[in-house]
Amino acid sequence: MGPGSCPEKAYRAAAAAAMQQMMERWEATYEHFSKEDPKQCHYLSMEYLLGRGLRNAVGCLGMEGEFGEALKKMGWKLEELATEESDPGLGNGGLGRLAACYLDSMATLDLPGWGYAVRYKFGLFRQVLDAEGRQHERAEPWLEHGNPWEVKRANIRFPIRFGGSVKEGKWVPAQTVMAVAYDMPIPGYKTKNVITLRAWDAEPITADFDMFKFNECEHDAALADFKLAQTLTAVLYPGDIPREGKALRLRQQYMLSSASAQDIVARFEQRAARAGKPPNWDDLSNKVAIQMNDTHPTLAAPELQRILVDEKGLPWDQAFGIMSKCVAYTNHTLLPEALEQWPLDLMEELLPRHVEIIQRIDREFIVKVKAKYSSMPKQELYATLSHMTAMGNFYDEGAPAEPFSAQRAAEKPVVRMANLCIICGFAINGVAQMHSDLCKEMVFTDFAKLWPEKFHNKTNGVTPRRWLAFANPELGAVVTKWLGSDAWIKEAAKLTGLKDKASDPKLQEEWTAVKTARKRELLELLWTSLGDGVKGPAMGDASEWLFDIQIKRMHEYKRQLLNLFGCVHRYNKLKAMSPGDRAKQVRRVTIIGGKAFYSYWAAKECVALCNAIGRVVNNDPEVNGVMRVYFMPNYNVSAAEKLIPAAELSEHISTAGLEASGTSNMKFQMNGCLLIGTLDGANVEIRECVGEENFFLFGTTADKVPGLRAERAAGKFTPSPRFLEIKELFKKGPFGDWSALMSSLEGDSGFGRGDHFLLGYDFPGYIEAQERVEKMYQDKAAWARGSIMSTATSGQFSSDRSIKEYAEDTWKVKPCPVP
């Protein structure tokens, strides 16, 4: 294809060539798995944030040189063609990116495994900003031109049932659609193994189409199943404020859980059939491990129980024993409001058989707890049970006869999904050591006392392939040169070899040159992404600016608002200086990026406030030579692959005790970025690795948060004058009127929990930490050394390490490399 051809067509041709190479390995991988019949892991996640596929495929296949040369002869560059690809709309944030990194590591470590997903047509949304800098949501039609990285498996389809009733223990559904498999190959790095991400689409049962109703012009009734199928896979995380939204989310979760469970069971039966024998169901847990990534796939547990009992005819106790040895659960949140609870009446309406199953599981759990704690005082026992049952607001806790033995008339009984996961699962893990400890000490305390052997930690990780070797190949080349080998790409622990070289002036010079090049590339991207009203004049040479970046989902606990308070503090400070003093300051560009959920008013206000600050600061000739503030719209993996390599300082400033782990902190660290942050999530472990001198710590600790909130609520805490001054400035200053947003920081007004996330308390420490940043940045050798040390100590946070721990400790799955 010649240089005059359409770039999109050239990309399609390049993708097809790479896909052909993967197809051969893909087929060989599962032929080998079929022959060896190893135990396999199955990763169920509501989202996967994959990123573009071409560069990753070519890199993992080890074809960079020959592929690049072939394209060059035809007048194309691999990097240019890769930009023709849309980011797959299968995910949103850290949860989905973690799942993608984990599949990459499973494949690279030759582990037999599968990912399971939903094939959303329009993703979460495409974030666009209006002239005032406010977020609006648009459809993200990533499948508009097809997906060259998927194969439809039309013969792999399973019924997904909803509604109806249960008669004699059998479910008689009111509505049924089919889940159809679309498979995407996940290549391992320089290995022959290619595993599968199986994404489920929904289709109506065409044979059930009611021609009579359609011809009688009852079109809505005739097309009801078609509409349901279209709706099920339209959007990730649809709005759930009205009941209809909750129903759609529950349907989506059940479709993922049911289709995946049916597929897992069907493949187990096929393996037995190939061996010429009936399936030995007691052997299922020796061949299958199911990891539920957060509570979204919780229904996989009762669904597997339903399949074993209702369809395979197993006795209840045998089925529960099998199911409970197959499923494991990863918790990702300490926020009480984020622990999913479904209204019981809604679940009864949509999944009546599953409600019966969950209630029986719960009754038997109650019996076990009562037997375990037979000597415990009754009221203490009942208080304990009230926190642990899967059914919440459901049992009569104060009956004179035997509490927790009958349903009570209560408001809004719910099904508590995390509790159900723990009751059914054989292993429960947090995603950073601090998070796992808090899970046991604060969230699931009674469960941890009952089953301490179930609870363990698996600190998150990120793949060094995509996030260093492919996203930042020039820095990767420097690493390889100074280590004498590229073995670090598969064995990230080898990055520690840079520690002894971190003070070498030649390495620092090469390192800084790469960072400067990445900063220049990011400025080019930023300039094409922003509206003219917020840009300000050209910034000049990027090498003279400190790039300070915070990119993550917009949420109050992640405290983008604290960052914005810091920006205005810096602006006020600069405005008060003489021109001579101002010229001596560190030049800093602050970039914030992230999507706010469409109904999350406070988060969307922070997006708009960032842009309002940017319009003032970036167009102020007194300060725009030393300070800029920008919001990067529509943050996704491809944007991250530009932002992270360019960052010199990254902000991970959540209220202590609320961030489960974080993974963007690991990506920044891996790319030689220093962090400013609180003792929260994986920050704790990162700080231990990089050294206190290379981590700008501030803020309270998790154990003090409840007391500080109580102190604030009692009116005993007064924020610093600087904080109060900025808060008032946000009400009537040059940035506009943000009084409604500021009310969340005042008393108990606003959202009912004034300054719940302790911005006022942590603000002075945050400003002091930023002053330490600027002092160190002026010492170029010290900063370069800290940057190198960040990369050198990042191997601990490779997803290969995480997945190896899951495989060895939880799943008991062994590598099965294709010979």
From TrEMBL:
| UniProt cross-references to InterPro entries, sorted A to Z | Glycg_phsphrylas (IPR011833), Glyco_trans_35 (IPR000811), Pyridoxal_P_attach_site (IPR035090)
**MF term (GO), any:** pyridoxal phosphate binding
- Which prosthetic group or cofactor does it need? pyridoxal 5'-phosphate
- The main enzyme category here is transferase
Q: Which residues form a coiled coil?
A: none
Q: Does the keyword Metal-binding apply?
A: no
Per the UniProt record, which EC number(s) apply here?
A: 2.4.1.1
Q: Which Pfam families match?
A: Phosphorylase (PF00343)
Q: List the keywords (alphabetical).
A: Allosteric enzyme, Carbohydrate metabolism, Cytoplasm, Glycosyltransferase, Pyridoxal phosphate, Transferase
Q: According to its UniProt record, where is this protein located?
A: Cytoplasm
GO biological processes: glycogen catabolic process
Major subcellular location class: cytoplasm
Residues modified as N6-(pyridoxal phosphate)lysine: K667
Catalysed reaction, written as an equation: [(1->4)-alpha-D-glucosyl](n) + phosphate = [(1->4)-alpha-D-glucosyl](n-1) + alpha-D-glucose 1-phosphate
Q: Name one GO cellular component term.
A: cytoplasm
What's this protein's function? Answer: Allosteric enzyme that catalyzes the rate-limiting step in glycogen catabolism, the phosphorolytic cleavage of glycogen to produce glucose-1-phosphate, and plays a central role in maintaining cellular and organismal glucose homeostasis.
Instruction: Give the matching PANTHER family.
Output: ALPHA-GLUCAN PHOSPHORYLASE 2, CYTOSOLIC, GLYCOGEN PHOSPHORYLASE
Q: Per its UniProt record, what NCBIfam families does this chain match?
A: P_ylase
Q: Which family does it belong to?
A: Belongs to the glycogen phosphorylase family.
The protein depicted here goes by the name Alpha-1,4 glucan phosphorylase
